[in-house]
Amino acid sequence: MSLFSLFFLILGLAAIGWITARMRAMRMRPAAPAPRPHSLPGYHGWYVALWLAIPALAFLVLWSILMPGLVEQWVLASPAAQALPAADIQRTAILSEAHALADGSLSAAFNEEARALVPAFQEANSFYGTIGIVATLLLAFAGGGFAFLRVRPDFRARNRVEKLVMWVLLLASLIAILTTVGIVASLLFETIVFFDRISITEFLFGTHWNPQSATAGGDEGSFGAIPLFWGTILIGAIIAMIVAIPLGLMSAVYLTQYARPRVRSIMKPVLEILAGVPTVVYGYFAALTVAPAVRDFAVNILGVSSASSESAIAAGVVMGVMIIPFVSSMADDSLAAVPGAMRDGSLAMGATSSETIKRVLIPAALPGIVGGVLLAVSRAIGETMIVVMAAGLAANLTANPFESVTTVTVQIVQLLTGDQEFNSSKTLAAFALGLVLFIVTLLLNIIALSVVKRFREAYE
Amino acid sequence: MNAAQFPAREPTDWTTDAMQRRIRARYRAEKRFRIYGLFAVLLSAGFLAFLLITMLSSGARGFTQTEIALPVDFAASDIFLEPAQLEGGDRDQLLAGADFQGLAEQTAIDAYGEDGTMLISNGAWLRLREAVADDPELLRREERIWVQASTEVDFAARGADGLHMTDERRAMIDRYAQLEADGNVRRGLSWTFLSSADSSDPTLVGIWGAFKGSLLTMIVTIALAFPVGVLAAVYLEEYAPKNRWTDLIEVSINNLAAVPSIIFGLLGLAVFINTFHLPRSAAIVGGLTLALMTMPVIVIAGRNAIKTVPPSIRDAALGVGASPVQVLTHHVLPLSLPGILTGTIIGMSRALGETAPLLLIGMRAFVPSPPSGFTDAATVLPVQIFLWSDELDPGFVEKTSAAIIVLLVFLLAMNGIAIWLRNKYEQRW
Question: Cα distance from B209 to chain A (closest Cα, Å)?
Fold first, then answer.
C-alpha cells in the first residue's frame, strides 16, 4: 500500500469516526428533563474525526520525509553496497539509479552495481513501508478511540473544536508573513553571497554590465548595474508615464465629470479590460506590431539611423497603455473623494466645468493622483514580459528612446534561464537585482499609500 | 455693515466686446478640454480594439491548416507488416519499427515530383502510422490519406496577402492553385492544433499540452490559495485582536499584493527548487508559486466581502446563542461567499495570465507531450505564447496569435463568470 492511498484511507476512517461519534451523541439526547448535552452531535463528530486524522496524518508526513534517508542507510549497510565506488558523485548516481529500478520507473539498468542493489532497496522499502503503515493506523485508532470515549453529554466538544478552528485561522494568516520573510530571506541570502564576490559599490555604481563575459575568476568589472537602472527608469518611469499619465488622467476626468452615466458604465469596464490583458500578449503585440513600426518611423521620417528594432520607446509606449487603467482608476477615486461642496462652490462662482476641474478638483485631488502615479511607476518597473519581449539585452547608457536599452527584470530573466549551476555569479547577480527591485517597489508603495491615506484623512 | 470698507464698484458690463470675447474664449477652452477628455478615452479604447483585432485577424488562421492528399500504396511499400501481426500486443513496437517516414516521402515524390517532400510537413508520416493503427486492413491496399501540408503550402494557401513576396513564394502560389484545381489540397479546422502539444514544426504544434499544463497549475493554485486566503481573511476581519502582530500581518499582505510577480519567481526558485528539490518545470511548483502570488489578492477581496456583511446579523446570531464559529459558518461566510468568489476568480485570472515567475522556475522547457500529472514537466499557455513568439519560423506567427486567442477566451470566460456571480448574488444591505 502506498503512502498516498494510506492518506485516503485515513480520511475515510475520519469520515467513519465522524458518523459514528455523531450517532452516539445523537443517542445521548435526554428522554427526561435531564440537563441537555453541552454540544451538538456534529461537534462530537468533528472532535473524533480530527483526533483520528491529525496525529496520523502528521506522522505520515513526517515518515514520508524521513523514510528515504532510512532506506538509504539500510541499503548502504547491506553487503551489496560494499562494492560501491568511494567517490561521492558516482555513488549517488548509482544509488538513485537503483532507486528508480526498484520502484519500476526505470526498466533497464545502466550500471551493474545498481542492479545488485535493487533487492536491498526493495527489502528496505517494504520494511520501512510496513512500519509506516502500521504506526499510522495505530495512531489513527488510538486518537480516534481516545476521542470517542470522551463523547459524553457533559463533554464540551464544541469548545475544543472551535479552539482548533481559531488556530487554523491564525496559521493561515501567518502564511502571509511567512511569504514575506521567505522573499526577504531568499533574496538577502543569495545577495550576500554575491557581494562577497563583487563589491557592492561596483554593483550599484558601476557603468559596465556584461555578465556573459564574466568568468569564474575575473568577475570584477562586468556587474555594474547603472545601465540597467537607467533603462528601467527610461522605460517604466519616463516613457510609460508620458503615455499613461495624460491618457489616464484625462480619461478619468472625462468619465467622472462629463460622460453621461450610460457612457461611463460602458467605457469604464472597457478601460479596465486593458489591465486584464495578460502581459505576454502586450509583449507579443509590442514586439510584432509596435516595434517595427517605431523603427520604420524613426529611420524614414525622423532620420534616426541608429534606431533599433528593440527600441525603448516601443516597450515603454505599450507598457504605458497597460498602465492607463491604474492611473485612471486611482485618479477616479481621488476626484470622487473631493467634497462636492468645493466643486459646487466653484461652479456657483461662475467658473466653467473645465476651470473647476483644472483649478479646484485636480489641485485638491493632487495627493491622491500622485500616490496613484507612484503605484503605477512601481507596477511599471516590476513589469517583466513586455520588456523581455520588446526591449533589448544590450546594456546601453543612452537617453535616445529609439535605441535599445535593457532593464532589471529583463536581466533577471536572462541570467536565470540559462543552464548554469545555481551558485555562479550570474545567478547570484539575478537575486541581487531582485533585491534592489523589491526594495524600490516596496518604498514606492509605502510612500504612495501613506500619501493617499493622508489625503483621504484630510477630507474626512 | 462692512459696506464702508469696500469702495462702491460699477457692476460688470457683460455686453462689452472685451467681456464677450473673454466669455467666448472660456467656452472654447471648455469645449477643447472636453474633447481632450473624449480623445483620451477613445484613444485608450482604440488601443484595446487595435490589439484585439490584430490578434484575432492573425490568429484565426492558426486554427486552420492545409492538408494535402497522399495516394499511399501500402501493399507495394517497404512496410512488410501483415494486418494479422498488428492484432497482437506488440503492435506499437512493430509500428514504431516500420519506416513510415520513408514511405510518406517516397509517396510525395511519386505523386508531386522531385520536390514533393517540400509539400508535406515533417510530421506527415505520423498520419500514415495512425491510419494503419486504426485500420490494419489498409496494409493490403492503396489509400488516399490526407496529411498536413508544409508551412510553405500553408502560406501559399492564403494567397498573395503575405507580407514579403519572394520568387519561391510566387511559384508556390501557382503550384497551390494547380493542386487545388486537382482537388489534392483542402483547408479546414486543425485538430492537430487543438489536440497536441509543442513541436519544433509549426504545422505540428498544438495548444492542448499548454492548456492542460495551465489547468493543472491552476488546480494547484486554487487548492492552496483559496482556503488559505479565505481563512486568513476571516481571521483578520472577524477575530484578530488589534495588536502589533495583526498589524504586521496586514502590512505584509498589502505589500505582497504589490510585489512584482518576478520576485515570486525568485522566491519559488530559491525555496521550492533549490531548497526543497521539487521537480523543475512541474505544474506543482508553478502552482505553489502562483498560489503565494494569488493569496494576498484573495485575502484583500475576502476582507472587503466580509466587511459588507452588516454587524446586526452577527449580533442577532450571537444573541440567540450561536458561538463565534457558528456565526461565521452559518451566516458570515455564506453571505460573503459571492464576493469572495468574485475576488478569487479575478485573482485566478491574473495568475492564469502570469508568465514571468514561471519562466524562472523552469517552465519554459520544451515539452513535446501533454503533462499527465502534477510532477511532470509542463508548460502553460502564456509561457507557450512566449516560447512560440521567439521562434524564427514564420509559421509560428499565426500559431502564437491563435494561442493568444485561446488564452483570452479562457480569461474572458473566467471574468464573465465573476461578473455573473456578482450580479446574481450581490446584496445591498
Answer: 18
Cell numbers linked to B169: 513564394
pLDDT digits (tens, 9 = 90+) for A387-399: 999 888 878 888 8
Domain A211-458 class, CATH top level: mainly alpha
Distance in Å from the first CA to the final CA of chain A: 65
Written as one letter, the residue type at A147 is: A
Range A368-371, long-range pairs (CB < 8 A, 24+ positions): A368/A330, A368/A331, A368/A333, A368/A334, A368/A337, A368/A451, A368/A452, A368/A455, A368/A456, A369/A249, A369/A330, A369/A331, A369/A334, A370/A448, A370/A451, A371/A330, A371/A334, A371/A447, A371/A448, A371/A449, A371/A451, A371/A452, A371/A455
The number of C-beta contacts closer than 8 angstroms across A and B is 244
Strand-pair partners of B64: B189
Is B53 part of the contact surface with chain A (CB cutoff 8 Å)?
no
On whether the CB atoms of residues A429 and A194 are closer than 8 A, the answer is yes
Q: Where in chain A is the domain with CATH 1.10.3720.10?
A: 211-458
pTM above 0.80, yes or no: yes
B398 CB near a chain A CB, below 8 Å? no
Asked if the model's pLDDT at residue B326 lies above 70, the reply is yes
DSSP assigned state of A36? P
Q: State which H helix or E strand residue B144 sits in.
A: strand B142-148
Contact of B264 with chain A, judged by CB distance below 8 Å, is answered with yes
Q: Could you count the other beta carbons within 10 Å of the beta carbon of residue A120?
A: 20
Nearest CB neighbour to A173, from listed B249, B356, B397? B249
The DSSP H or E segment spanning B174 is: helix B167-181
CATH class name, domain B208-425: mainly alpha
Tell if the CB–CB gap between A276 and B415 is shorter than 8 Å. yes
Name the percent of chain A lying above pLDDT 70: 90
**Domain layout of chain B by residue ranges:** 63-189, 208-425
Grid cell at residue A401: 528612446
Judged by CB atoms closer than 8 Å, whether chains meet at A189 and B26 is answered as no
Share of chain B above pLDDT 90, in %: 31
Cell readout for B400 is 502564437
CA-nearest of B79, B65, B89 to B193 is B65
Shortest distance between the Cα of B283 and any Cα of chain A, in A, equals 17
User: Quick check: B252 and A165 CB within 8 A?
Assistant: no
Read out DSSP for A133-195?
A: HHHHHHHHHHHHHHHHHT--TT--HHHHHHHHHHHHHHHHHHHHHHHHHHHHHHHHHHHHHHH
- Give CA angle at B76 (B70, B78), nearest 5°: 90
What is the C-alpha separation between B97 and B112, in angstroms, rounded?
Answer: 26
> What is the ipTM for the molecules in this complex?
0.86
Residues of A in contact with B239 (CB under 8 A): 166, 169
Place of cell 472551535: A162
DSSP state of B294: H
Measured at the CA of B403, the angle between CA B399 and CA B406, to 5 degrees, comes to 140
Q: Does B19 touch chain A (CB under 8 A)?
A: no
Please answer yes or no on whether B389 and A284 come within 8 Å at the CB atom.
yes
* Average pLDDT over every residue of B145-149: 80
Q: What is the pLDDT of residues B382-398, one digit of tens each?
A: 999 999 988 877 778 88
3-state secondary structure of B145: strand
- Whether B254 and A449 have beta carbons less than 8 Å apart is answered as yes
Contact B266/A434, CB-based, under 8 Å?
Answer: yes
Q: Which chain B residues contact residue A254 at CB under 8 A?
A: 34, 37-38, 40-41
Helix/strand/coil for B142: strand
DSSP-assigned states of every residue in A377-424: HHHHHH--HHHHHHS-S-------TTS----HHHHHHHHHSS---TTS
For residue B39, which residues of chain A lie inside 8 Å, CB to CB?
A: 250
Q: What is the pLDDT of residue A110?
A: 67
